[in-house]
Amino acid sequence: MRGLKSFVNYLKRADKLYWFIMLAISVYSLLLLKTVPNSESGKSYFTVQLVAIFLGYFGAILFTLIDYREIASYWYIVAGFCLFLIVYTQIFGIAVKSSGGINAKAWIQLPGTTFQPSELVKIGFIITFSKHVSELKERDLLKSFPQVMLLALHAMIPIILVHFQGDDGTAVIFFCMFLAMAFGAGVQLRYFGAVFAALAVAFPIAWEYILQDYQKDRFTIFRHPETDPLDKGLQQIQGRLSIGSGQFWGRGLFNSNSRVSKGLVPVQQSDFIFSVAGEQLGFVGCMLIVLLLLLFLFRTLRIARKSPDCLGSSICFGFFGMIAAQALFNLGMCLNLLPVMGVTLPFFSAGGSSAACLYLGFGLAQNVHMHRMNTDKVTLRR
């Protein structure tokens, strides 16, 4: 009886609609991956995703049991662990074939599998940066130029380290998370203007001295992939054909004669999972993905708005920035609106590391909702 009462009390405190949307996304993701053929090594993307989702939900529930203020009070442990993960990956990491990047040394080898530490570091960054920006807001220091520069330096640490791994797609996501949390906390707009002005000035320099040839090719070809249909434009051409072939209702799930079953779209289980939905479930299936993600994002913002403090709202804005940026960039590259950049569609793309860690972010946002009425003062370690 005690266990049942605890469960009922948990449900009363939780955002049940948020849970429902999350469960719907999980089921839809598994359904799409069930239709994708196994990898060349025989690995089932469906099975890997199912295990990752279970682990992710377990971690999310654990996260909701501890007040987010208490979690953030150990920011220094989180920061140290994240720094260790990135440095360890830089030294001992490996590159994974068809990872969406070229020579991206962003994975580490674990018994029987690989793991991408930067996915876990995203969650750590949400915690540490939210703690940082909330401390500044409490002390009324967000208008101080030196303090804002320290915030920018905080964000640049994971961005630069991930860049040196060769995973610039993830570096861009970190940057978007930084913008979302800084904006949500109330950093003055003039600083954002300065950031974008600096980017405009820096882009020609980056193009000349930092971007590699394959990255430049992605920028120059994405609008006209048919100019190199057998190499640089192949993925986007095939993805577009699959999406268009589904028309309104799709060609049907588990179609043995489909483009999905033949594996015509490179990395269709991950970066181009949207093309799987487009072919098999058509426009309706694609719009269902967009609708579910929009509902999820709006619910995240609602939790942020109802948060009792800057720490809670910053956590939600960070998670919002991560999901929104990944969804925008992934859908953009699948629809030939943006260059291919190795960014997965959140919750839908295959990838144990990404899936499990995304659910941890969901747990953090749910935590903010469940502890919003907690008036107990937590001793925050500064």
TrEMBL record:
Transmembrane residue ranges: 17-33, 45-66, 72-96, 170-187, 192-210, 280-298, 310-329, 341-365
Keyword Transmembrane: yes
Entries under InterPro entries matching the protein: FtsW/RodA
Recorded topology in the membrane: Multi-pass membrane protein
Subcellular localization(s) per the UniProt record: Membrane
Residue runs in coiled coils: none
UniProt keyword list: Cell shape, Membrane, Transmembrane, Transmembrane helix
Keyword Membrane: yes
Main localization, broad class: membrane
PANTHER family: CELL CYCLE PROTEIN, PEPTIDOGLYCAN GLYCOSYLTRANSFERASE MRDB
Protein name from the UniProt record: FtsW/RodA/SpoVE family cell cycle protein
Species per Swiss-Prot/TrEMBL record: Caproiciproducens faecalis
